[in-house]
Amino acid sequence: MATIFSKFLTEMDVTRSLVIPTNFMGLLDFERGRLMDMHVHDDAGGLWMFRCSVQQNGIVGDVLCVDWTEFVQHKNVKVEDKVIFVMEDEAAGGRMKIEVKRKIRLFGQDIWGDVK
Predict the structure, then answer these.
(1) Which of 5, 78, 94, 110 has its CA 20 to 30 A from that of 29?
(2) How far apart are CA 27 and CA 74, in angstroms?
(3) Kind of pairing, strands 95-106 and 82-88?
(4) DSSP 16
């Protein structure tokens, strides 16, 4: 398993669309101006389809905008959660997995728990 991308989520990521700089998505083939579907599995084995497009961002260049609204609502994803995209079974052509982690403060320690 190899981590492709991870980030702490912003208000925009949670309320509008997940924004990922394209230089982090080297394993995926996306073209500017074209809608693509990204299929990912979650920890529960569910299959999710995210509609994606590459858009120009004046600050960081091209970004991948991921419409994942249904996933966010279903999983109750929140600002400051951490999203992780992982490539599994690379030898067999690969399968992308999405994980969401939430920081929990327990007895003075920060623990990252899975968002189910």
Answers:
(1) 78
(2) 27
(3) antiparallel
(4) T
pLDDT (tens digit, 9 = 90+) per residue, 60-97? 678 888 999 999 999 999 999 999 999 887 665 678 89
pLDDT at 16 over 60: yes
pLDDT mean over 41-60: 86
Give 57's contacts (C-beta < 8 A, 6+ positions apart).
19, 63
Tokens at 18, concatenated: 């997940």
> Alpha-carbon distance 67 to 35, whole Å?
11
**Number of other CB atoms surrounding residue 55 within 10 Å:** 14
Residue 23: partners with Cβ closer than 8 Å, 6 or more residues away: 61
